[in-house]
Every structure is written in C-alpha cells, then in structure tokens.
Amino acid sequence: MDEPTQRRLSRVLYDALNQQGYSAGRIKYRSKSISRHFEQYFNKILNNGHIKSILAGSLGEGISKLCSSDIDMMLSHCDIICVDERSHANGPYSLVLQNEYTDTFPGYVRLRADRPVRNHQRHLFSQRCIHTGRHYLSSLLTMQTLSLNDPRYLINGPACTSTADNNIDAKLKIDFDSVLALLFVSLNILEKWMGRERHHEWPPRALRRKIFTMTGYVVHVGHKFSEHKDVEWRISYTTAEKKLVRSMNDVQ
Questions:
Q1: Are 61 and 26 spatial neighbours (Cβ–Cβ below 8 Å)?
Q2: Which end of the chain is more exposed for a tag (fewer CB within 10 A), N or C?
Q3: Are 222 and 230 in contact (CB under 8 A)?
C-alpha cells in the first residue's frame, strides 16, 4: 500500500471515529463530566468523610460511552495510607502501612502493619507470617469479608458487582463494579517512571511533574502465580491514567 493510500485510509478512519464521538475533545469532555457526576453521586450515598469514590475504567477515561460500559468505582479509605517508609511525617492517618516489594511480581506490593489489624467495619484484616512474625494486610480476607457482607453482590476478581435498574428504560440494567482501595505513595516507582527514555516528549514535562505529585492506590488482589498472593495488593494509578488520556491530542 503506497503512502497516499495510507493517508486517505487514515483520514477516513479519523473522520469515522470523530462521527462516533471519539475525538480528543469529546473524550476529554466525557471523562470530566461523567467522573464528576458519578463521584458526586456515590459520595452523597456514602456520606462518609473517610471514603472517597473514584470513577475508573474506560468510562472514567472517557473512551467508552455510558450505554456501552459498566461502571467501575474505586472506594478509597482516605485515612489509610501505604508508604515506602513509615514516619511521623506520614500525617494524621488512622493506619499507616509499609510497602514491601521483596518476592512480589511487578505491579504488586505487600503491606506490612506494625500491629495486628482486625477492622470488621473496614473489611481489613492482617495475617501473621509464620517465618518472620510480621503482620501483612490480607487481600484474601478482605475479599472474603466483602463477599459475605452482602449476598446480593457478585464477586468478579477484586470487585463486588451489583445491578441497578435504569429509570429511563426498564429493560436496560446498569452494572456497578466497586472495589476497595487504599492510598499508595511510592517515590521509587514514580522516579523510575519519570526517568524513562522518551522519544517523542510525551507526556510533556509539565504533565510529568504534575503526575509525580499524585497519589496511587492499591486494591485487594494478588498475582495469581505468587506464593504470597493472599497478602499481595495490586498497584493502580487510575487518576494519573485519566489525566494522561485527557492530555492526548486527536492523532494520539
């Protein structure tokens, strides 16, 4: 295929995607407006200053439409934080957990507590390592207590799925996938990301600096091939990913 033909086909594809609502401007608008709507809606329902809802997935990024996607929500305990080094500078959190990456798969972490954790209200429990005596927050026990908390929920991976009726069309059901998340801070991971070689200067330097200051999250699921999967948590930078998608131009 010669270059002029490739350009014409690219133009046709570009125009078709625009007509279907996938221009950069419309993606950015959907991401901001839908995220704001559902996060305000869920925060009002939760009515809890310690829990913050965050719209995730393709709907949160604006790259899918409401009618073609389920709704993925992260429910973050804002008074619990996971850090590389515990110190008094971690702020006024009810629980501070220390990140451990030894013998974990990339993208996963173990969360060490300085004391046993038995918090039924938060569905958080620790397990004691018989070899070291250390206490690690258990992703398995968190999942089990969440599934037992309300038998109406279906469990899909780390998410609890519920179905709501649509007020406009009774035949249309909307699935809500909610997952518990904890604040995660790791300068080591962010510094590695900042130091990557970039050939096209994307994302731009100003955006990279902004993302460097953002908080990540961990959710209660371990790597399926890990010997420590019951106490592993998966690292997620959902809010940073949304900001990156919103920064893309039409070609990207």
A1: no
A2: N
A3: yes
